Amino acid sequence: QTLIRYAIDPTQAAPIEVRLQLFNAMGQSVRALVNDLQGAGSYSVAWDGTDDNGDRVASGIYMAVLRSRGRLSSSKLMLLR
User: Fold this and answer.
1) 51-58: long-range contacts at Cβ-Cβ below 8 A with a sequence spacing of 24 or more?
2) Whether 3 contacts 44, CB under 8 Å
3) What 3-state DSSP class applies to 50?
4) pLDDT tens digits for 8-59?
């Protein structure tokens, strides 16, 4: 299990739509971790190494992509089993 941390701009007055999604090395969607309206602040979400169906995914490199207010932010994750 890993913890993914992110923050919403503290100057953001109203909640905004936030989507945090994991993709495999081939660019296929693996898991949607967050798809919600969120206000300014710091957040964290745990990923247990499973896909949207609850199946364990293989060891490898994954990308966590955060979309909010038309912006994209990404980071690499390495899953070792």
Assistant:
1) 56/81, 57/24, 57/30
2) yes
3) strand
4) 988 878 999 999 999 999 999 999 999 999 999 999 999 999 999 999 999 9
> Tell me, what amino acid is at 11?
T
Tokens of 30: 């693996």
What pTM value is reported for the model?
A: 0.89
Residue found under tokens 């499973």? 50
Closest CA to 46 of 64, 70, 58: 64
Q: Which tokens in the block code for residue 17?
A: 């739509």
Q: Is the pLDDT of residue 70 over 90?
A: no
Q: In what helix (H) or strand (E) does residue 2 lie, and over which residues does it extend?
A: strand 2-8
